[in-house]
Design a protein that fits this description.
Shape: globular
Structural class: mainly beta
CATH class of the largest domain: Mainly Beta
Helix content: under 10%
Oligomer: single chain
Low-confidence stretches: 1-28, 333-338
Length: 375
């Protein structure tokens, strides 16, 4: 059997190394962003090896996190240290590529921002500020507050916009209702429900809003065309603290703090696919874009539980900062920058293979058309 010269075998290994590095870079573009409420920073986690690879400071008491559509920036709501402590009124903007703070948006008199979402084009940020009964609309370019809608209810901690951005739905925990903001008219409608409404999400097709109630343990479905309740049914556990749709809209995931379970629903049928027992009491949920994994923060255990949504089983846990709360998934793009190294002037070459000699530093290019190798 003919063997390659050692320098060419080296080139083959070098090529394989470059290939492996490119795959690793693509994998590392997936980032799980976790807010450490107890240590006032965010952890950047590689979801493939379960390792924290960077930490970036935030304001006091970071809660929910929203990611820009391009995966580049994380917006962190700094709620503060609670009653009797420091009330937060800022949003920290983290550049996930440079792993640094890009900006800090001040909310002025509006305190304890909790949930926040980014518009589809990335130009607007919507922030729920429950104590003032307001939802703020912020220009992401400069952090200025463009609008402040009155939700006319107590406890508007969590919100969810429709995909087209025409409406914003707010779950009112203490108010026992859902507020519906019409962005065009500025009008707010109240849908009476039950005290304890907390988790909320809009389906990917924008047709339905699902709201979870942590006290009644029910899911309420609202039709976005009419803003009327379609149906209510059991959440399948105790303490339904959140609800989250998968990117394809086929599944809805509901974590339960008291029963320590994750209930997976078929959205079309509105029935339970699986109930997964969890090692810790969960709170906030994030789902990978491909829908194959889910992540749950466990504030009392200082870690994140990883769920395989294919086998519907627990994969493991990721140690993070103290009292992890908000969390979000980012698919930040890998931006490659290159330049032309050289140009072969010969026409009709039709180059195919390429090899590098580390001794002479020559590059060899093979031609499929001329059946030659050019150094």
């Amino acid at each position: 059997m003919q063997t390659l010269p050692s320098d060419l075998r080296y080139c083959e290994l070098l090529f394989l190394l470059f290939f492996w590095l490119s795959i690793s870079a693509a994998a590392n573009s997936q980032t799980l962003v976790v807010a450490s409420n107890g240590e006032h920073h965010i952890d950047l986690v590689n979801p493939n090896n379960f390792q924290v690879f960077a930490r970036v400071p935030s304001g006091k008491g970071p809660h929910e996190i929203a990611i820009s559509p391009d995966g580049r920036y994380a917006y962190v709501a700094n709620t503060g240290t609670g009653p009797g402590g420091e009330l937060g009124n800022t949003i920290t903007v983290v550049d996930l590529k440079s792993r640094s703070i890009k900006a800090t948006f001040s909310l002025g008199a509006y305190t304890q921002p909790h949930d926040l979402r980014v518009s589809r084009d990335g130009s607007l940020l919507w922030v729920a500020c429950a104590p003032s009964q307001r939802v703020l609309e912020i220009d992401t370019r400069n952090g200025r507050i463009a609008k402040a809608w009155n939700i006319n209810s107590e406890g508007g901690w969590m919100l969810a916009p429709t995909p087209d951005g025409r409406k914003i739905y707010v779950a009112n925990l203490e108010g026992g209702s859902v507020s519906v903001i019409d962005r065009a008219s500025g009008a707010t409608q109240i849908i009476p429900l039950n005290t304890g409404e907390i988790g909320i999400d809009v389906s990917s097709d924008g047709r339905e809003v699902w709201v979870s109630n942590s006290q009644k343990d029910i899911i309420t479905v609202i039709d976005t065309a009419t803003d009327r309740v379609v149906v209510s049914f059991s959440s399948g556990g105790k303490g339904a603290v959140r609800v989250k749709f998968s990117a394809d809209g086929k599944r809805a995931l509901v974590p339960h703090t008291n029963s320590k379970t994750l209930v997976v629903f078929d959205v079309g049928q509105r029935n339970v696919i699986s109930t997964i027992d969890l090692p810790e009491s969960p709170k906030v949920i994030a789902i990978s874009r491909d829908g194959k994994r889910a992540f749950l923060t466990n504030p009392s255990a200082d870690n994140v539980t990883v769920i395989d949504l294919v086998s519907l089983a627990v994969l493991g846990r990721i140690p993070v900062g103290k009292t992890p709360d908000g969390m979000a998934w980012s698919d930040a793009p890998i931006i490659g920058r290159g330049k032309v190294a050289f140009t072969i002037p010969e026409k009709n070459l039709i180059p195919e293979g390429i090899a590098y000699d580390p001794v002479t530093q020559a590059i060899f290019v093979s031609s499929t058309y001329k059946r030659t190798i050019k150094p």
